[in-house]
Prior knowledge:
Layout: H1 2-77, E1 101-103, E2 106-113, E3 116-126, E4 143-152, E5 155-162, H2 165-171, H3 177-180, E6 182-191, E7 197-200, E8 218-221, E9 225-227, E10 238-241, E11 247-251, E12 261-270, E13 278-283, H4 297-300, E14 304-309, E15 321-326, E16 332-337, E17 348-355, E18 364-368, E19 371-376, E20 390-393, E21 395-396, E22 400-401, E23 403-412, H5 418-426
Antiparallel strand pairs: 1-2, 2-3, 3-4, 4-5, 6-7, 6-23, 7-8, 8-11, 9-10, 10-23, 11-20, 12-17, 12-23, 13-14, 13-20, 14-15, 15-16, 17-18, 18-19, 21-22
Amino acid sequence: MxxxxxxxxxxxxxxxxxxxxxxxxxxxxxxxxLGVASVAVMxxxxxxxxxxxxxxxxxxxxxxxxxxxxxxxxGVTEPESALTRNISDFANASSGISGASCSxxxxxxxxxFQGQDVNYxxxxxxxxxxxVKLDCNQPVTQIxxxxxxxxxxxxxxxxxxxISGCSFYAANQGLVATSDGTAALxxxxxxxxxxxxxxxxxxxxxxxxxxxxxxxxxxxxxxGIKETTxxxxxxxGKEFGGGSDDRIDIDLTGLGSLNQKGTFEAWLQANGDxxxxxxxxxxxxxxxxxxxxxxxxxxxxxxxxxxxxxCDPLSPGETGVHFVIYDDAGVASALDADDQIADDDSWTxxxxxxxxxxxxTEKIFLYLNGEEKGKTAGPASWSGASLNDAGVLGSANxxxxxxxxxxxxxISNYAKTSEEIQAVWNSFETE
Length: 431
């Protein structure tokens, strides 16, 4: 009897152990299942967050494109010069950012991205100190970069875009010819389908129309001119090899009395000997015109040329940059600057202004990198005959060729102020 009781007790213990073991196994299966479910949920949440993060960056990037597009549009389609624009002008409907508002130092607007409502904001940093945020009432010429944030379904991401030369050549120089005084403009990054032409502003699609219907096309001559392999000041430029025939013949038809007042601007990199040789930049006569020939005296009246280096007989014994204009008797009047064009792969911004009717004593000013380097009263007799219809870029002073790079060459129909010249230089990040 006692043995039967013990056996029964053992059987009960075994049954209880089996139940406990089964419960343990079930608990482990449940924990494992819950773990898998948790991982799946976490992975799903991670996937959603990653997707929203990626789309947030895409929204921010699209916002940066909107800001850059507005900057270009302000320079291309509006009549006044963008040099006078403030950051608050990004909020104007005409700038292309519909519904934007600017408060404090933040430009904000809403939009639609991939069918979803999104929000944008932009902060602009100061060129003088990149840690300083520019207020809405500060000029666009002070911008060094823009930080754009995009919000997608509550996820906010941002991108930073530097603002350098090319963007500001559109925004700060303006590309509307008749409104900003531009008479001719050669970007020098356009070549005709046959590789022999450089198109003037008027002939480039998408830049707002023609310049007084002139279309001052440039014809490439010589075999030593090629497009730069890297970006120049704004997109590509033209590299001149210095060959005696290398130049761009340009049509100045219609520019007329620009010898009485005007502005010439170009961005240059020199790669030639300026101490012992002469590098021609520009002249308002044909390539084969002989400036020294007595027989050409009448044809010199009111014409001008630009060169750098030791350019005898323009300025005997003088080295530097030379602007020469001829009076009513065909006699040269030279403005010389001791400084030379940079030859260390950095850029020199050259500007010359002239106005025979200016109120002050000095009528002609020469600037390098925004700084005044010389001024003169100009010729004693200067009534100003019309410019010749033919001109040359990259050669002057009896076939003295340029060696180096020329980019963004512009002639304006008025004498720009020193403030305007300085502002153009300040708008660029030069390297």
